[in-house]
């Protein structure tokens, strides 16, 4: 899961790209990069947060009014400098690209490109094969008569050859910006316009930060091309039923974002109300409901109302610590919990506490938080989770590709409760999860493969095993 941004402005784009990427920083903390274009491409990228990668000196050389940016959260490869995005090729024209998602036929595609297409890939980032396929397909068109039809033909070729979940923004030197979304629309992507300024982004919060007040979702299987004269060309190349990732609403996206016509904050309120019903059914009556900041706050609020219990901020977050879910390595996650959270002892001491969190993946973070609250003097510590048990690996860009990493794959709920040291554990039901999101009536069929094991792109056992082997190979121990 990464954050992507593309701008075509009437002024230099570099500082606006930095501002927009900072608003998307929650989507990736391993690396950041920007590519701009004027008489040539200008690239700066590196490992670290946006504020650490960019400074006044390197921004000064990122000239041009068009550009693309990226924040990375690695799900494949070693996460080295070579994997930081954007990537670019010199032919045809010069094409830069950023993406969010995961290419499920990455290894077959890479082998085909290197052996049959005589292209040397230089990283383990799966945007690189997408970029090479797009360039290959564009090169098959009449480049002397380049226009929107050339771009749409190249994107159609990507849809034929690239499998998985991907939202992509490309910068074609001297020709404009192109953005497209996989035929199932698993990863979010939106488009905004303000006069002669245009923007593409993973989440609408980037538009808010940059002063764009109106936006639309890029549809599944759609390509949007903004040419060098700032004319917009759109085409739905592959009609299909939307399957947006349900985990965006549970955890990844910012609550002030709107994804596929659903406000994330409102979605979490409804998830909390549904979870409240499960807590009631379990007969749990806590003295206090305490959200685990930040993603569980909205859900905890509506859960507390549903069970008629007071809500308190019993845990305070150090905002200078990165998100623990997307940190590599169990030991690092465990250490970071203590640095990230501290209990408000006056609120938890001597009370029965019900903690509310968005999910349990490996169990490491939950165990440390339960221990932290218990050490602060809580009499009993329960845990309510707004998502159902995560039992299946994600193949579409979330860092849970290995079945062995998923605690719910190895243990039933009583075993998980014992493992994390909680006095009670209540999960959202699968029915409650879908009821909360379906209540928005958008017509989407959400990708919930990590809960159900039903992959909308038809992932087979061989593909899962290969992805798991590669994930284990590069995981930090």
UniProtKB/TrEMBL annotation:
Its EC number is 2.4.2.14. It catalyses: 5-phospho-beta-D-ribosylamine + L-glutamate + diphosphate = 5-phospho-alpha-D-ribose 1-diphosphate + L-glutamine + H2O. Its cofactor is Mg(2+); [4Fe-4S] cluster. SUPFAM superfamilies: N-terminal nucleophile aminohydrolases (Ntn hydrolases), PRTase-like. HAMAP family: PurF. Binds 1 Mg(2+) ion per subunit. CDD domains: PRTases_typeI. The active site is at 2 (nucleophile). Mg(2+) binds at residues 295, 357-358. Catalyzes the formation of phosphoribosylamine from phosphoribosylpyrophosphate (PRPP) and glutamine. Keywords: 4Fe-4S, Glutamine amidotransferase, Glycosyltransferase, Iron, Iron-sulfur, Magnesium, Metal-binding, Purine biosynthesis, Transferase. The keyword Cytoplasm does not apply. GO terms for biological process: 'de novo' IMP biosynthetic process; purine nucleobase biosynthetic process. This is Amidophosphoribosyltransferase. In the C-terminal section; belongs to the purine/pyrimidine phosphoribosyltransferase family. [4Fe-4S] cluster binds at residues 245, 394, 447, 450. Pathway: Purine metabolism; IMP biosynthesis via de novo pathway; N(1)-(5-phospho-D-ribosyl)glycinamide from 5-phospho-alpha-D-ribose 1-diphosphate: step 1/2. It comes from candidate division WOR-3 bacterium. Residues 2-229 form the Glutamine amidotransferase type-2 domain. The keyword Transmembrane helix does not apply. One of its GO terms (molecular function) is magnesium ion binding.
């Amino acid at each position: 899961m990464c954050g992507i941004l593309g701008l075509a402005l009437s002024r230099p784009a570099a500082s606006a790209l930095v501002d927009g990427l900072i608003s998307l920083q929650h989507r990736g903390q391993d690396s950041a990069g920007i590519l701009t274009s004027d008489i040539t491409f200008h690239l700066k990228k590196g490992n670290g947060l946006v504020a650490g990668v960019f400074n006044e000196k390197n921004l000064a050389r990122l000239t041009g009014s068009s550009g693309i940016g990226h924040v990375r959260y690695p799900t494949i490869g070693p996460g080295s400098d070579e994997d930081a995005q954007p990537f670019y090729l010199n032919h045809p024209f010069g094409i830069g690209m950023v993406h969010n998602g995961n290419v499920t036929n990455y290894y077959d595609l890479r082998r085909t490109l290197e052996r049959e297409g005589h292209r040397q890939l230089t990283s383990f980032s799966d945007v690189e094969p997408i970029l090479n396929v797009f360039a290959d397909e564009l090169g098959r068109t009449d480049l002397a008569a380049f226009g929107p039809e050339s771009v749409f033909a190249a994107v159609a070729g990507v849809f034929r050859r690239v499998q998985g979940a991907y939202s992509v923004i490309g910068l074609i030197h001297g020709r404009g910006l192109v953005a497209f979304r996989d035929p199932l629309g698993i990863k979010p992507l939106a488009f905004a316009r303000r006069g002669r300024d245009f923007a593409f982004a993973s989440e609408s919060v980037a538009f808010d930060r940059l002063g764009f007040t109106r936006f639309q979702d890029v549809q599944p299987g759609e390509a949007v091309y903004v040419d060098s004269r700032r004319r917009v060309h759109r085409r739905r190349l592959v009609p299909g039923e939307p399957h947006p990732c349900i985990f965006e609403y549970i955890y990844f996206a910012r609550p002030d974002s709107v994804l596929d016509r659903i406000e994330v904050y409102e979605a979490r309120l409804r998830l909390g109300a549904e979870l409240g019903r499960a807590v009631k059914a379990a007969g749990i009556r806590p003295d206090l409901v305490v959200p685990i900041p930040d993603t569980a706050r909205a859900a905890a609020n509506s859960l507390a109302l549903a069970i008629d219990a007071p809500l308190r901020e019993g845990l305070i977050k150090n905002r200078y610590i990165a998100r623990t879910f997307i940190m590599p390595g169990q030991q690092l996650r465990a250490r970071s919990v203590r640095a990230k959270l501290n209990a408000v002892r006056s609120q938890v001491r001597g009370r029965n506490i019900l903690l509310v969190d968005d999910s349990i993946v490996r169990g490491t973070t939950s165990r440390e938080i339960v221990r932290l609250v218990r050490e602060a003097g809580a009499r009993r510590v329960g845990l309510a989770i707004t998502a159902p048990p995560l039992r299946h690996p994600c193949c579409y860009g979330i860092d849970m590709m290995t079945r062995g990493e998923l605690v719910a794959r190895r243990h039933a709920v009583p075993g998980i409760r014992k493992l994390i040291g909680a006095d009670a554990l209540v999960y959202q039901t699968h029915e409650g999860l879908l009821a909360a999101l379906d209540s928005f009536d958008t017509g989407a069929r959400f990708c919930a493969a990590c809960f159900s094991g039903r992959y909308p792109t038809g992932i087979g056992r061989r593909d899962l095993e290969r992805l798991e082997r590669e994930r284990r190979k590069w995981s930090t121990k």
